[in-house]
Design brief:
single chain; Hypothetical protein af1432; three-stranded antiparallel sheet; three-stranded mixed sheet; 8 strands; about 70% helix
Length: about 500
Amino acid sequence: MDDIWIILVFFVLIFTCLFIWLRWQQKSLRFEKERMLMDAKGRADECFLEGQKRLAELSKVKDELYDQKEQALAHREALIGLQLQGIVEREANIKEHASRLGKQEQQITATQQEVNQMQSRWSERIAQIAGLTAQEARDALMSQIEKEAAADACKLSRRILDSAQSSAQEEAQRIIAIAIQRCAITHSFESDSAVIQLPSDDIKGRIIGREGRNIKTFENLTGITVMVDDSPGVITLSGFDPVRREIAKRAMTALVANGQFNPSLIEEVVSQAESQVQESARAAAESAIKKAGLLTLLPEAVLDMLGKLSFRYSYSQNVLAHSVEVSLLAGLLAAELGMNIAQARRAGLLHDIGKAMSHENEGSHAQIGADFLQNNSESPAVVSAVANHHSHQMLIHDPYSPLTCLISAADAISAARPGARLEAMQSYIKRFEQLEHLGNSIPAIQKCFALQAARELRVFVKPSLASDEQCKLIAKFIAAKVQNELQFPGKIRVSVIRELRCDEFAE
């Protein structure tokens, strides 16, 4: 029984504690609620104050903007007023100017009427005096004026033509003399030797190899014929391609210095020689571009082809050195004539590029070079100058004839100047003899002389056998005969002279 009371008391205590804890929690929640309400009310008051402050600031900004707009409107109204005042003043000035122009127009009209009346009176008076009508007198006067004007125009054109012809030759000589004096290019007359020196004749057997294996390999790789004969201490390389001949020369020199010969080594040395020649050609082309003063770069294919000219010689004149000289001469001539200097130098440097391919393609080197440059996106002016620099008749349509004439002149100066080309004395004398023999073979010829290094053939005809008109036919006939029968580089001028003397004696 006691245990039951104890349990009851225990449960009562537990319930009492639980009831007290719950009341305490309820009070805590109420206090927390009140505190949160107070915080919310405080934040609401702060927000209200902040809103009032923001509203006051916005009102102040609104007032400032309103004041600024009013000031801007007032300023704009003042400007519009000034503009209206200026327009009114300008309109008044225009009206005043129009009034003055009207008065002047009336005065001009009155003066014109007076002039017309006077002209009419004078025309009638002239017609009465001359017995002609006014229209007939006017026509006669206009006809006389036209005749006098035509005569004056003919006299003026004749004076201009005579003056131009007399000064053109002097001006051309002056320009060419200036260009030649300012361009001093030295030419090396080295002929590419195809002779290889040997340390001893014993090495000839190694060059030939067993059953000719080494020499056949070398000839197949280089395209050059190796001539091994009884000449002591030398062998000769023969071939028409100067680039291949240079490759063969370098390769054979390296093999002779090494002293060993076998097909694999020959192939390796020839490959190295090809690389060396390509590098040498590229270096020569870049050096030529610098000497010519070109600022623009050339395409890779054009640069490689230009470098091959360093191995070509024309009458013992190096073609690349000749191209550089033509480039400089063309630039000097263009400067004197007021033409495009850079374009003239570029065309002069590239004018003989076809000679690097003339042995591989059919046609003249001018046409081959022009086609190659056109395929490599060269300018039409340069392509046309390259194509036509040797032609009396254009190979392609040439709207840039001044540049073509300039390149032809520079090319002729470079090739014909003293010391530019080396010819044997025997062939030089033979050229004179052939020209004079050809001129003397015509019956009407009295005397014939070859002049200016056989660049001119001066012919004297018999006056009794040829008239002045026939002299032109004789000159054309001789020029055609020279062109067909003789193979000389450059141009040959044919001058036919007919001199008639009438002698009388007074005693």
